Predict the 3D structure of the following.
Amino acid sequence: MRRWAVRLGSLVVVVALWQWLTTADVRAGLRFDRLPSPVEVATEFSRQLAGGLYYLDLAQSMIRILTGFALASVAGIALGVLVARSRWAADVLLPPVEVVRPIPAIALVPIAILVFPTDEQGIVFITFAAAFFPIMVSTRHAVRALPTLWEDAVRTMGGGRAHVLWHVVLPGTLPGVFGGLSVGMGVAWICVISAEMISGEFGVGYRTWHAYTVVDYPAVLVGMASIGVLGWLTSASIELLGRRLTRWLPRAEERAEQRAEQRAEQRAGERAGEKAEERTGVRAGDRETHERATFEQAAFEQAAGGREAGQGVEEAAR
């Protein structure tokens, strides 16, 4: 509850600062007097909510992003596992993939316009290309990072390749895969909005660009805020799904508690060791004192016996 209060408070501070910069006409290198205030943006947002075009744009963008992301997830995970598990597949498939991967997905818009018969298919392809590479790379690294001991144990018990894949590889790579899915979703939103601005007819990106061309800056900020909220909701959904599917992993709070317990046990062990050393030192000192006293007593008795023997010899000689 406290964390949510802190997060909400940070948003309130940002909005309050935004309101002050715009109403006070601050010109400290940047001209905030031209920026719409939060009140103006909220008014424009309420106006768009009253109409049906806003919801149509949201639905169109969501359909594009979910379609492209779903295709990228299936293809990226499959190819990532394949190239990580098969050397032959890595030699054949990775070179062309690595050549295409550095190219920004938005740079593929001209190719999409030429190849696909409709703009809708081209935008979905751009979304697919944007999300595919982060998912594929993260899956590949997650598979390679799996301990070989897990696979060896399953094979020792008679498990085949399919059993290893379904019961070792896929469950073990889920944390890394969901990390790639989260990154891929963020990149997909960036590229789908850019593609809508270039070649779309509907969508949040297209509507935001159209508002900019007619100098309607409150509508531009409404579009930007809508993109941010949609991106956050989809990423949070992926993160929530990842937590549900990886409940066997220790969470940050659990790891912190474990580290605290380990530190407490370590300190207790150190204290016990110090006390043991102190006791050992005292006992060693007592033992040394006793041995010294015993040695002195023996030496004294030996010296006394020597004197008595000498006296006996003298008396015998007389």
